[in-house]
Amino acid sequence: MLHTFDPRQILSVTMILFAIIDILGTIPIIIDLRQRAGHIESEKASFTVLVLMIVFLFVGEELLKVIGLDISSFAIAGSLVIFIIAMEMILGIKFFKEDDIPTTVSIVPLAFPLIAGAGTMTTLLSLKSQYDTANIIVGIVLNTMIVYVVLKNVQLLERLLGKTGLNVVRKAFGVILLAIAIKLFRSNSGL
């Protein structure tokens, strides 16, 4: 099967994943993790994120079939999760409890579940119902590159954006995620 790369789809997927991953909004959490555990291995964390997302993109649908769910049902459920994450970003209220932080943070909890968590995995399957897989993979790779750059330069970004700048970015992407959640719900529920 020949896949054509569609720049519009790639841009759309990249923006959606960028919003749901919210790497800029998690800079304060990443800084806190680094202070508690020491050095964060950016390469290891980024590679883990890439592998997790690509594997889930291909295997996630089969996992759903095993438990008797279709992509539309999962996309609707995912839209509700994305809606809650967006509300967290906009309102600054935490609905999801964060677990204790272990001594190493490159893979757990940084790569999973902070960056490639439930919201990201849900979004990947939701995207699969609307976009070509090749374009989703390009979006995943581009986002992994962004994650790597941010992890490598987290202190610089903190100084450049400041606390107010980080809050503005987080709230702006929260509104974008809210719109994405509504679109996913409408397109998969037949409304």
The helical percent reads over 70%
Indicate the overall shape.
globular
What's the structural domain tally?
A: 1
Rg on CA atoms, Å: 16 Å
Number of helices: 8
Reported for the largest beta sheet, the result is: none
Number of E-type strands: 0
Mean pLDDT: 84
Oligomer: single chain
As a percent range, the share of strand residues is under 5%
Question: Which runs of at least 5 residues are low in confidence (pLDDT < 50)?
Answer: none
**What structural category arises from helix and sheet content?**
mainly alpha
List the helices and strands and how they pair.
Layout: H1 7-21, H2 27-37, H3 42-66, H4 71-91, H5 106-115, H6 118-128, H7 133-152, H8 154-189
Short note summarizing the structure:
It contains eight helices and no strands. The protein is an all-alpha fold.
Key attributes of the depicted protein:
single chain; mainly alpha; 78% helix; 0% strand; globular
Structural description of this entry:
With 191 residues, the chain is an all-alpha fold. Helices cover 78% and strands 0% of the residues. The chain has one domain (7-24, 41-184). It has helices spanning 7-21, 27-37, 42-66, 71-91, 106-115, 118-128, 133-152, 154-189. It is globular, with a radius of gyration of 16 Å. The two termini are 32 Å apart.
